[in-house]
Amino acid sequence: MTATSADSATPGTRTNAPRNRRQSLYKGDPGMWAFALHRITGAAIFFFLFVHVLDTALMRVSPQAYDQVIGTYKTPLVGLMELGLVAAVLFHGLNGVRLILIDFWWQGTRYQRQMLVAVGAIWLVVMVPVLVRIGMHMAERFL
């Protein structure tokens, strides 16, 4: 019996053998998660701005309807959404600065992980007082 090219595969060639494990597009690298979170926060901010423009434009149509819409925003759920908006804007802005440094600083790619840790630390340091302030405001309003 002689071996054919289909019987033995050399390194670097493709075979039709089934793969043992499923490959995922996302490998779990922190930079990949920062990329995904940057896109998600950008979309959330865009959605907020869209709704904000619509409800503000309502003022020209009917001030009474505008007052009714603004009245529906005074709920605990919208208060939590405001907190999420602050968190999204803060992360998106800080990560945007990190991305600018990665793109335009000659050693940006070398220090991208350290900059991501710095973004997380700054985000946490700023978000704790924001959480306290918005939490106190929500407690006054809803409790």
From TrEMBL:
InterPro entries: SdhC_prok (IPR039023), SQR/QFR_C/D (IPR034804), Succ_DH_cytb556 (IPR014314), SuccDH_FuR_B_TM-su (IPR000701). Residues 1-24 are annotated as: Disordered. It is found in: Membrane. Keywords: Heme, Iron, Membrane, Metal-binding, Transmembrane, Transmembrane helix. Gene3D superfamilies: Fumarate reductase/succinate dehydrogenase, transmembrane subunit (1.20.1300.10). Its cofactor is heme. Its main location: membrane. The keyword Membrane applies. Residues 1-18 have a biased composition (Polar residues). SUPFAM superfamilies: Fumarate reductase respiratory complex transmembrane subunits (SSF81343). The chain crosses the membrane at residues 32-54, 75-94, 114-134. The keyword Heme applies. Pfam families: Sdh_cyt. Belongs to the cytochrome b560 family. NCBIfam families: succ_dehyd_cytB. This is Succinate dehydrogenase, cytochrome b556 subunit. The lineage of its organism: Bacteria, Bacillati, Actinomycetota, Actinomycetes, Mycobacteriales. The gene is sdhC.
